[in-house]
Amino acid sequence: MRISIAAGALSLCLASCGSSHPPPPVKKPNNELLVGDFTRRGGDGEAAIRFAEDGSYRVVKNKTMFDQEPPLGAGTWKVDGEQLTLSAQRGMCTETPQGKDATYKVVVSKVGIRFEKVTDDCERRATMDGQTWWRVQ
Is it the case that residue 39 has pLDDT exceeding 80? Predict the structure, then answer.
């Protein structure tokens, strides 16, 4: 009898002490998280990139220069899952047709974006490979 009372008390405790933790928040899709300004500093120098909601991007020397002309580079972006495709249209990486387009695997969060090169024939842009750029806004 004592064993069944103890077992009953234990099962009641376990049932009432069930997981009270809320489920983890659902991560926004990368195409929403990517929109914004990001910056990097390090051995490859300072740079900043703005991914606009309209699918355009703009690369500048630092985050204070987003509205100044000309940018270091500009073009369009699209993301499919974890794959980011960049197509240069002005400035950096437009010197050769094969250098205009690049594909990176990205990990995007509220704090930054990490780039892993899949294909990129533009040596200057390819310095992003393995880097994390931090969100400005």
Answer: yes
Residue 58 buriedness (CB in 10 A; 0-12 / 13-18 / 19+): buried
DSSP symbols for 87-137: EEEEETT-SSGGGSEEEEEEEE-SSEEEEEEEEE--TTGGGGTT-EEEE--
Q: How far from the centroid of its chain's Cα atoms is residue 100's Cα?
A: 21
Task: Check if the beta carbon of residue 127 is closer than 8 Å to that of residue 102.
Answer: no
Q: Is the pTM of this model over 0.90?
A: no
Report, in angstroms and rounded to the nearest whole number, the Rg of the chain calculated over CA atoms: 23
Task: Walk me through the domains of the chain, giving residue ranges and CATH numbers.
Answer: 28-135 (2.40.128.360)
